Amino acid sequence: MASILAYDLGAGSGRALLGRLTDRGIVTEELHRFPNEPVQVGSRLHWDILRLLHEMKQALLAAKHRGIAVQSLGIDSWAVDFGLLDGNGELLGNPYHYRDAHTDGMMEQVFADMPRRDIFARTGIQFMPFNTIYQLAAMKRAGSPLLREAKRLLMIPDLLRYFLTGERHNEFSNATTTQLFNPLTCQWDPELLERIGVSGSLFGPVVQPGTAVGQLLPSVVSELGIASVPVIAVAEHDTGSAVAAVPAAEHPFAYLSCGTWSLMGTEVDRPVMNEQALGQNFTNEGGVCGTFRLLKNIMGLWILQETKRQWEREGQSCPYPELIALAERAPAFAAWIDPDDARFMAPGPMLGRIADYCRETGQRPPEGRGEAVRCILESLALKYRYVLESIERLSGNRFGGLHMVGGGIQNALLCQWSADAIGKPVWAGPAEGSAIGNLAVQWIARGDFRDIREARSVIRESFPVTVYEPQEREAWEDAYGRFWRLTGLS
Ligand code: ADP
Ligand code: LRH
């Protein structure tokens, strides 16, 4: 039975999942899991890219030690970040983390050269301060010698794939997240590149998810003592892979990819680049098989991750199940934040920021761990309702429920509160959405699945889905009205 390998690198952790197609459907096995810890150097925040490569090699070694011959592999990761190669093909510096402060104020500077409206008309991409376009503009403004020397830009999965295969390709789903790629012409946008003063020669031809893009390099093969493995470009943006794995039988459907970020949206056949989408800052990210994700980023469980880290730094142990149990016992609807307030974006102690937000909005700040976690989770659930309603208006669809995938679905309380807040069922699963979507695209490329419909139907039969029915409707309806006024949402 052929085993294939998916590398899924999230902003918090990475994993390598082995997948097999059997008569019982898809069977997966986690070969290796590792933390993805950014490193602060002076005032700069970097990814430890070579450590990630090292961990990826450990997965290939684990397969070898188990006597498993891997038939193909694919890589997906978080979006927008990149590495620069010099003329000899060597990596120039460590890639910056998208939460590095160098992009502060850069959106406004770029808008002076090209208005928001024009950028959106060329890309269909939402305005996030960390998009690749603003990172490059920040490097340009700083006179970065790296940018001056650079001959090629590769997004994180493109770069890791290059380290393994020596081949340089930019993959479509991730290319769209740069806000430099025009989905209508299917080309890098020369005008945008010119306006930010970056050479178009940094960018290569774009390959679609499902393209065979080489083999492991002889040097990798001999270092690890394994046979060569074909490499497939999957939907290399992790959200693209996650949405590929949504086990929806219906179409259209609404999804929430729930991890470090909460990415909520619906799948569309062509980008929605109208006034409403621009006004509400929606995005159209490239997906599998010619689809796009009409979607909005919500700050997500990042706020909880950072809060947990803060307590751990102070010497308190706080596993997720314990935090969730404390939140469940804390008083309901006591204090809320708008998770998307810009103050929650940068790494750092969140509790002070939550307290500031509460004071500024006339609320008593949460006290103790249970109240703080309750505040974060309720606020996320209420924000999901707001975004889901916006997506319904924008797409003209009414959704019967919400599909949730990603590590966040291990938080049953969040799933239940999400159902309560939206007043519709939540269908939760699979938790390893991105890795499974990554495998699915490899199976399509290998001819094992006809298309994404067949892939989703096999995923549906292979992984359990937990259903959360909405409860306490009146209380949540009332809470939503108050949340809406408090956060000033329009
Ligand atoms: P990403 O790939 O974006 O880094 P994941 O999909 O791995 O994120 O999801 C990570 C999130 O899952 C964490 O922020 C945490 O809130 C949640 N999570 C992880 N483990 C558990 C658990 N045991 N119980 C509840 N929630 C969990
Ligand atoms: C989720 C994600 C998201 C991007 C962000 C940078 O991991 O890829 O889709 O907006 O990271």
From TrEMBL:
Residues 254-445 form the Carbohydrate kinase FGGY C-terminal domain. InterPro entries: ATPase_NBD, FGGY_C, FGGY_N, Rhamnulokinase. It holds the Pfam family FGGY_N. Keywords: ATP-binding, Disulfide bond, Kinase, Nucleotide-binding, Rhamnose metabolism, Transferase. It comes from the Bacteria. This is Rhamnulokinase family protein. Its EC number is 2.7.1.-. The keyword Cytoplasm does not apply. CDD domains: ASKHA_NBD_FGGY_RhaB-like. GO terms for molecular function: transferase activity. Coiled coil: none annotated. Belongs to the FGGY kinase family. Residues 4-242 form the Carbohydrate kinase FGGY N-terminal domain. Transmembrane segments: none annotated. The keyword Kinase applies.
